[in-house]
Amino acid sequence: MPGAIRSCAGGVVFCNDEVFLLMSDRGEWVMPKGVIRNQNRSNDVALWRVEDEAGIHAEIIGIAGNTRYDFFSESRGREISNRIQWFAMRAEDRSFHVAYEQGFLNGKYCPVDQARAMLTYDGDKKILDAAYQIYQQSLRVRP
To answer: What's this model's pTM, rounded to 2 decimal places?
Structure first.
């Protein structure tokens, strides 16, 4: 059976020069993301996933780029290819609520350099760097 391609969207959320990370059920530090369904727009899905997984109300400030990762799904019995469009986001405050019921183990805001070291995947590190540039530029032009 051939692999399935899933379109996903996620958010790289900054507040006060720190970025938010979630710890997955496998103990990996990741950023909020989810599958795009029912003809929803990627930017809407990214905002929903950030709110649903982390309890953060954020605003999009730019497009950070795309990543892709492949894995074998035991439940589906085939390869899955997730293609993720990432958005740089800004939150007004550092409040959050980890969705433990979705399997997340932890979450926190941390300095960008620390977050880069904590992220498991190189693609996520590159997206973090791109999103951080967008965030810094937004601070310079913000009233």
So the answer is: 0.91
Scan for tokens 């727009």, then name that residue. Answer: 41
Pairing of β 78-91 and β 4-15:
parallel
Residues found in the chain: 143
CATH number, position 26: 3.90.79.10
Torsion angle of alpha carbons 17, 23, 29, 35, nearest 10°?
Answer: -100
CB 114 within 8 A of CB 132: no
- Confidence at residue 1, expressed as pLDDT on a 0 to 100 scale: 47
Burial (Cβ within 10 Å: 0-12, 13-18, ≥19) of residue 138:
middle
Q: Considering its fold, how many domains does the chain have in total?
A: 1
Range of the domain at 95: 4-141
Mean pLDDT of the chain: 93
Tell me, what DSSP letter sits at residue 52?
A: H
Pairing verdict, β 106-111 and 18-23: antiparallel
**How far lies 32's CA from each of 1, 48, 68, 76, 143, in Å?**
29, 10, 15, 23, 28
- Residue 58 DSSP label: E
